[in-house]
Write a structure and sequence with these properties.
- It holds the Pfam family 7tm_1.
- The protein is mainly α.
- It has one domain: Rhodopsin 7-helix transmembrane proteins (Rhopdopsin 7-helix transmembrane proteins, Up-down Bundle).
- The chain is built from eleven helices and two strands; from the N terminus they run H-H-H-H-H-H-H-H-H-H-H-E-E.
- The chain has a two-stranded antiparallel ribbon.
- A hairpin with a 2-residue loop joins strand 1 and strand 2.
- The longest helix is centred in the middle third of the chain and has 36 residues.
- The protein is globular.
- The N and C termini lie far apart (56 Å).
């Protein structure tokens, strides 16, 4: 039985490495094109930061997993550090789906009253608030090598779990409203980002949610279901690696092969002409 558990654990470990490396390549291509070759508008800025969060999570996961295999040690730090990138991506996804939902429900009102730099401010706040939201409960609960403080750990961990579940509910709720309104109630044609948004929400439910459960119930799951953490890590890597594939599937069209920049541009819902400085995504998209 122990040999079977070890074999399954090794298979999950190498699958996680393979998926993580593929996701690093895909998100790296998205970062390259969105960051350098496409002029950043409200939508592309969210997707740029989402790709950065996925790249951070996958890079930390692959690097620390390789270090774990080389050194033969397992430390809680290997779970906390990648979770920073995962949490930032979860927060960005919740903000992205909420804004997409509002822009589709109230297009005229939203276009006229939305401050110009909303996306940049929201993304900056998310990157600033994610480290304390993850590291404070991890430090209080002894995951960073410090002594565990039970009372403080319980309070911080409860706040952290509430925050994570609120983000999941916000992202899924906005995606559900967008699906119902855009698919059944609205007479307007579906926006181009419709598939990307709903695909991201489905990926969160199927592949991202298990890692949230691991963070919330880590001591209990580690004792009762020791294989749940490796499986949840693999699914979280699938969650971070599949988003570039969603962009490609949403933006590609039948016919001759097209540049990746044109595919990304179409996935963002704007067919602006190719310019010397890149592709333009005007503010009027919202």
């Amino acid at each position: 039985m122990f040999g079977l558990w070890r074999t399954i654990n090794n298979v999950l470990f190498y699958l996680t490495l393979a998926v993580g490396l593929a996701g690093l390549l895909g998100n790296g291509l998205v970062l390259w094109h969105l960051g350098l070759h496409i002029k950043k508008g409200p939508l592309s800025l969210y997707l740029l930061h989402l790709a950065a969060a996925d790249f951070l999570f996958l890079g930390c996961q692959v690097g620390l997993s390789a270090a774990q295999a080389a050194l033969g040690t397992q430390d809680s730090l290997y779970f906390v550090v990648p979770f920073l990138g995962f949490s930032a991506g979860l927060w960005l996804l919740a903000a992205f789906t909420t804004e997409r939902c509002l822009s589709h429900l109230f297009p005229a009102c939203y276009r006229g009253r939305r401050p110009r730099h909303t996306s940049a401010v929201v993304c900056g706040l998310i990157w600033a608030l994610t480290p304390p939201a993850v590291l404070l409960p991890a430090h209080a609960c002894g995951l960073l090598g410090a002594r565990t403080r039970p009372g403080t750990c319980l309070r911080y961990h409860a706040a952290s779990v509430t925050w994570l579940l609120s983000l999941v509910c916000g992202a899924c709720g906005a995606g559900l409203v967008l699906f119902v309104w855009g698919g059944c109630c609205s007479q307007r044609p579906r926006p181009q980002f419709f598939g990307v948004t709903l695909g991201s929400v489905l990926l969160l439910l199927l592949c991202g949610l298990p890692l949230v459960f691991c963070w919330s119930l880590r001591p209990l799951l580690g004792f009762l279901l020791p294989l749940f953490l490796p499986l949840a890590t693999l699914l979280a890597c699938v969650h971070g690696s599949a988003r570039p594939l969603l962009h490609f599937m949403s933006g590609r069209q039948p016919g001759p092969r097209q540049p990746l920049r044109a595919v990304l541009q179409r996935a963002l819902g704007e067919q602006a002409p190719l310019e010397a400085g890149g592709l333009s995504l005007p503010m009027g998209l919202l």
